[in-house]
Amino acid sequence: MKRDLMQEIENQLSTMGISVTRGDKTDLSIDAELLDASFSTGKKKPRYEASILLEEHDKAVKMYEKTTEISAGVSFGMSGESSFQSGSTLFRKVKSVQYGPEGKVFEYNFDIGAITKAVKTAALAQGWSFKTVILKKNAMYR
Q1: What backbone phi and psi angles, to 5 degrees, belong to 82?
Q2: Separation CA 54–CA 52 (nearest Å)
Q3: Distance from C-alpha of 26 to C-alpha of 9, rounded to nearest angstrom
Q4: Could you state, in order of their start, the residue ranges of all structural domains in the chain?
Q5: Could you read off the pLDDT of 44-76 as tens digits, one per residue?
Q6: Is the whole-model pTM more than 0.90?
Q7: How open is the CA angle 35-16-124, to the nearest 5 degrees?
């Protein structure tokens, strides 16, 4: 059962272009650089990290997520984020358009919540519960 669910989660995320690694500290890990933009006056690197633990004894999937961003330099533009919460799951979309001296330097639009939704949907479809955890250690092997 656990192996089937892990495969289903990997398949769902793969169709979204998200690479998943089977780990030695948790069942599935995601470490994705969402953008690597360098321009004449700076750079921007948003990253997404997730740990997914499948606890077979109580058929529960626990997921930890973290986004970070490294920015340096000067650019002008707009960015926005929208989010809503359904139960204990947060759905988040981020969008940014930035301009430098040479014109438009980058644009990105990511639906980070779609990753969580795919994992939750796969878990529930196979009769497992789903829980978002706020501490990484709660999505790791003990």
Answers
A1: -125, 145
A2: 7
A3: 14
A4: 2-72+113-139
A5: 777 889 999 999 999 999 999 988 876 666 555
A6: no
A7: 130
